[in-house]
Design a protein that fits this description.
By secondary structure, the protein is mainly α. Helices cover about 75% and strands about 10% of the residues. The protein has seven helices and two strands; from the N terminus they run H-H-H-H-E-E-H-H-H. The chain has helices at about 5-75, 80-115, 120-125, 150-175, 220-285, 290-325, 335-345; strands spanning about 180-195, 195-210. A two-stranded antiparallel sheet has the order 1-2. Strand 1 and strand 2 form a beta hairpin. Helix 5 packs antiparallel against helix 6 (about 290-325). The longest helix has about 70 residues, at about 5-75. About 25% of the residues are buried.
């Protein structure tokens, strides 16, 4: 077909836009998987730190129980005090068991995401320990808006809009202008008569056909209206995609700023309550403090340390969210080459 008014070129542009959109979708899945693996790695690291804290707490409770039992055997401690120490030690052991089970679940979840066996995962984690506590707490006030172009979903929405625009142009050209097509054929044959073979090559060109957009009962006009509606839908989806991208970046930046502002206070609280617990423990062992006072100090100190670890996990998760929000380092210029190479390698 002779492309008099650019309708066929517009169709090619629409097809190219859809191809680019599909390639960006592959990268979007890769970025999402990377973010999920990172979040699960953070969850496992935080769980292991929490397990270390509750184990130390359980050991401290067990030591308090031994001291109280010795005092009770010597007639220096009331049975109620020993019962409280025994209950505290049991609570500590139960907390350790629950936290250990949670870590096992987190480890299995990470192994599933990484497509590894638990044994292989443990080897990799041992070779690359989680850099806990190395994250800088300085806030990140903003990121350049141009980084949103790295998001595969925003690029996909833009390509959908471009394809819809090309489809609209194609329908409009076909509705308003005539179409000119030229037909032809080439044939190759052979005939064998009396032991002789003769080749026969034929070709023909024509006829030249002109199609006029008239007397179609409004079909072409209706098709144009459909494409206009699809274009408006794609434009609305693109605007929504950009707004969602801006929101996700802002949420990640807010989380980073919030965790940065709370980091020092959480650390001071954990250190202060820990020092208070150590002092209460020393007083109780010297016979100057009561076991209920020690248990209250222990509970507050444990909660403060757990809150500090949760805050550090929240900050690491905010960095992962920001990574995802700005597209995970994907670049449209290398989209086709990267996806084609990696897919073929699979």
């Amino acid at each position: 077909e002779i492309d008099l008014f650019g309708a066929n070129a517009a169709q090619a542009q629409a097809a190219q836009a859809r191809l680019a959109m599909a390639q960006a979708g592959w990268h979007q899945a890769r970025v999402s998987l990377a973010a999920e693996v990172a979040l699960q790695r953070v969850a496992l690291a935080e769980c292991e730190r929490q397990l270390a804290v509750v184990r130390a707490d359980s050991d401290s409770r067990a030591a308090s129980l031994r001291l109280n039992e010795a005092s009770a055997n010597a007639g220096l401690a009331a049975p109620a005090t020993t019962a409280l120490a025994r209950a505290s030690a049991a609570e500590g052991r139960a907390r350790v068991a629950a936290q250990a089970a949670q870590c096992v679940r987190e480890e299995r979840a990470l192994a599933t995401l990484a497509d590894l066996s638990v044994a292989d995962l443990r080897q990799r984690l041992a070779a690359a320990p989680y850099p806990w506590g190395t994250d800088a707490t300085v806030p990140l006030p903003s990121v350049p808006a141009v980084l949103l172009q790295q998001r595969p979903d925003v690029f996909m929405a833009a390509q959908t809009l471009a394809a819809a625009s090309a489809d609209w142009h194609t329908a409009d050209m076909q509705q308003r202008y005539p179409r000119l097509s030229l037909q032809g054929s080439i044939a190759v044959g052979s005939v064998r008569l009396g032991g002789n073979t003769n080749d026969a090559r034929t070709w023909s060109i024509g006829p030249l056909a002109l199609t006029m957009p008239i007397l179609d009962g409004g079909r072409r006009a209706a098709n144009t209206q459909v494409q206009v509606a699809r274009y408006e839908e794609a434009a609305s989806a693109y605007r929504a995609s950009v707004r969602q991208a801006v929101r996700e970046v802002e949420d990640a930046l807010t989380a980073l700023r919030s965790t940065s502002e709370r980091a020092d206070d959480a650390r001071v609280a954990a250190e202060g309550y820990r020092a208070s617990f150590v002092a209460a423990e020393s007083r109780q062992r010297a016979g100057l403090g009561s076991l209920p006072e020690l248990e209250d100090a222990r509970r507050i100190s444990l909660a403060a340390e757990s809150a500090l670890l949760s805050l550090q996990r929240e900050r690491a998760s905010a960095w992962v969210a920001l990574y995802r929000a700005v597209g995970g380092g994907w670049e449209e210029a290398n989209n086709a080459q990267a996806s084609g190479a990696q897919v073929s390698s699979k």
